Amino acid sequence: MSFTLAIVGRPNVGKSTLFNRLVGKKLALVDDQPGVTRDLREGEARLGDLRFTVIDTAGLEDANDDSLQGRMRRLTERAVDMADICLFMIDARAGVTPTDMIFAEILRKRSAHVILAANKGEGAAADAGVIEAWSLGLGEPIRLSAEHGEGLNDLYTQLMPLADEFAKRAESHAPEVEVDIDLDEEDEDEDNFDARPSLSISPNKPMQIAVVGRPNAGKSTLINKIIGEDRLLTGPEAGITRDAISLRTDWSGTPVRIFDTAGMRKKAKVQDKLEKLSVSDGLRAVKFAEVVVVLLDAAIPFEQQDLRIADLAEREGRAVVVAVNKWDIEDEKQQKLKDLKEAFERLLPQLRGAPLITVSAKTGRGLERLHDAILRAYDVWNRRVSTAQLNRWLAGMLEQHPPPAPQGKRIKLRYMTQAKTRPPGFVVMCSHPDKMPDSYSRYLVNGLREDFEMPGTPIRLTMRGQGDKNPYKGRKKSTPSRLRKHLKGRSAD
């Protein structure tokens, strides 16, 4: 990416709509009511032949206190400081407001490159607002319609010279990368080579982690502590996060992409349209994730909604880690931990053996244990077992507990193989697969967990019939035509 562009302006001027158009996806939530966006959202933007990073920000409001609006404004000002270029948007139909005048003055002082855009500029109703935008003293305004994609050519024209300038600057500051390599030199660590297959985690392909849970469990605070900066909006109010925000970072040497999601309440309580959009955005993040961290509040763990969220992650086939937050304010830690483990085993049998980690998002205690548990869960999620091992194991399981014989017909389990990983999926070839009871499938799944060290991860077990290899089975019996003619001739004689 050649440069970073931050889109700033008052609430409801169309910043998220333009962000979605530049990235080519509906990543940011969009609604008619103001103040939908609260966190900073980054995306890879394309405009003609330009490739750059674009940041969607919360609406600027005239608030400097510690209220939610004040905290949102400080986060947006931070984005202005981070960005190379600021695109200041106003509503052309509403015209220039006193708040626009205040923020235009702030941007002149804080940003070296400010581009002014008058959005919602389609039609004659916006003419007066576009002319009025000149009074902000930020040069000629671009007449935009983010909804309809109008004015993007003018935005490209203004960005092009700045992009060239940033590209030249980056080239002049590029480090020397040519290194002489002695091909005859032996690798001293050759004997220490780790023969285990390496997991496919790299800066180009980071591990995808989604943090989910009920409102006010501390998801944003936890992620801020992991990345080492106050990047996400936090506070005592429940339901602050609305968008599923993804952030890339290096967590203790592991490249990760962490999704912060909106708190998920019971479906019956979700009436507001915006909250429905937020929850569906969070559910989408679970589907894209590889590891799901279900964050509980230590004061009220394993409520019905927590169980539903954990069950959702298991049904989606994701590696699951359960983290109990706010552990720093817990008094009876030993007894509480014992009760938590007992409740976990009883209420979530489908995730038996999944890691249960106590953390404090506020102080950072327990984060290393959480990191290690996530790596272990990811490793198990990617585990592969050879067919020879599986069939030796299956023979032992059959000897220990043979399958039932419904209607007097014993089900024969012939052989077993692993069909997939992420999560581990196994296929058992057998007779009468439709008559196999669920209890016997659970017996095999639990055995796989224990004997091949796959605790907690979802395991998919499919019973499949081999079928009959006779190609004529099921065909209608018929006499060949030549034989029919021959027999017909003989009968005539």
Automatic annotation (TrEMBL):
Domain EngA-type G intervals: 3-167, 207-382
Domain of life from the UniProt record: Bacteria
Residues that, per the record, bind GTP 2: 213-220, 260-264, 325-328
Keyword GTP-binding: yes
Biased composition (Basic residues): 472-493
GO BP terms: ribosome biogenesis
NCBIfam families from the UniProt entry: GTPase_EngA, small_GTP
Protein name (Swiss-Prot/TrEMBL): GTPase Der
Organism (species): Shimia aestuarii
Originating gene: der
